[in-house]
Amino acid sequence: MSLTAEKLTSELKVTQYDFDPDGTSATAVEWVDMKDYGKILVSFFRTVGTSNLTFLVQASASSAGTSAETVLTKTISSQPDAVGDYVFAEVLAEQIAAKAASTGKALRYVSAVLTFGTGTDEGVVTYIRGGSRFKYTSLTADYVS
């Protein structure tokens, strides 16, 4: 029996990003559109280094992240300071809407904004957007360059 399951891929939009900023400045990973989604889960997975990590989720009215506002500051009780360590942060559309209302900005795009303590550290960041307003055959697809 052959069965092709597309249950999770039709409910979740999953994207992954190599995060290697080569510095210690706060760096946006990737700005993604939340217009049709009710929530986002962001993960950081350490691949190189041991320094402390600062982890924010910001929202912007612009896909370029102009004039971004912090929606969430992730409290990290135990730093992901070894290869294979990972942490998560979750933001709801309601939190973005509340920040938009308090700032008067039409916030629509979000990004994880990460800061390493050492410029040689690296990781992988995964965005999982859920609660889509519309049903699709597949929101998540393979990406091979």
Description:
The chain is built from two helices and nine strands. It has a single domain, classed as Jelly Rolls (Sandwich). It is globular. Strands 2, 3, 5, 6 and 8 form a five-stranded antiparallel β-sheet that branches. The relative contact order is 0.36. The model has no long low-confidence stretch (mean pLDDT 93). With 145 residues, it is mainly beta. A hairpin with an 8-residue loop joins strand 5 and strand 6.
Give a short synopsis of this structure.
This protein is mainly β and 145 residues long. Helix content is 11%, strand content 40%. The chain has one domain (11-130): Jelly Rolls (Sandwich), CATH 2.60.120.380.
Q: Name the overall outline.
A: globular
- Gap between N and C termini: 32 Å
Using the 3D structure, state the CATH architecture.
Sandwich
Q: Please state roughly what percent of the residues sit in beta strands, choosing from under 5%, 5-15%, 15-25%, 25-35%, 35-45% or over 45%.
A: 35-45%
Q: Averaging pLDDT over every residue, what do you get?
A: 93
Please state the structural category: mainly beta
Name of the level-1 CATH class:
Mainly Beta
- Tell how many strands the DSSP assignment holds: 9
Largest sheet: 5 strands, antiparallel
Query: What is the helix/strand order?
Result: HEEEEEEEHEE
Q: What is the count of helical runs?
A: 2
How many individual domains?
1
CATH topology: Jelly Rolls
Q: How large is the radius of gyration?
A: 16 Å
Secondary-structure topology with pairs:
Layout: H1 7-11, E1 13-19, E2 27-28, E3 32-33, E4 39-48, E5 53-60, E6 69-73, E7 86-92, H2 93-103, E8 109-116, E9 122-130
